[in-house]
From TrEMBL:
Residues 32-106 form the Lipocalin-like domain. Pfam families: Lipocalin_4 (PF13648). This is Lipocalin-like domain-containing protein. Keywords: Signal. Residues 1-17 form the signal peptide. PROSITE patterns: PROKAR_LIPOPROTEIN. It comes from Flavobacterium tibetense. It comes from the Bacteria.
Length: 155
């Protein structure tokens, strides 16, 4: 029953997001080429509520996760290896559009991105040569809040 309620809640959240444009921001994409680590995840009320990020794990499990972005073909990987969290590793496809949105699909091994119908749209913020943020807008208790994933360059 919990899964059914969560499914409809997530479906409602996803239905509110419009389809992102596909006009690419190549400069922003090239700037995040390489390997990155999430050093923090923050949002209002994080001490009392939990957020299931990307339908994979609690948002706090993503602290210390490794991400690799390849800008010439918009592919990459993400991996969680945090204690007391589910171990997870997956290929991804991604792009950054001219509106500053990071659009990502999490793939199963061997799966083609065109076969995956659902993805995630986050806003790119505070991008520098060594760090950037991805900001996800969520609805909690009828109010909007931002979940901020802080990335730091590993190499």
């Amino acid at each position: 029953m919990k899964k059914i309620v969560m499914f409809f809640l997530l479906l409602g959240l996803c239905a509110c997001k419009s389809n992102p444009t596909t006009s690419l921001d190549k400069k922003a994409e090239v700037a995040i080429k390489g390997t990155w680590e999430i050093t923090s995840v923050s949002y209002p009320g994080s001490d009392v509520i939990s957020v299931n990020s990307f339908e994979i794990a609690d948002s706090k499990c993503f602290i210390g996760s490794n991400w690799k972005f390849v800008s010439n073909n918009n592919t990459g990987t993400m991996a969680i290896q945090k204690r007391d969290c589910p171990s997870f590793s997956s290929p991804i496809t991604w792009y950054i559009n001219k509106e500053g949105n990071f659009v990502m699909k999490v793939l199963n091994a061997g799966e083609k991105a065109k076969r995956v119908r659902e993805g995630y749209v986050l806003r790119v913020a505070n991008q520098t040569a060594t760090s950037f943020q991805l900001v996800d807008r969520i609805v909690v208790g009828g109010s909007s809040a931002d979940v901020v994933y802080q990335f730091v360059r590993v190499n």
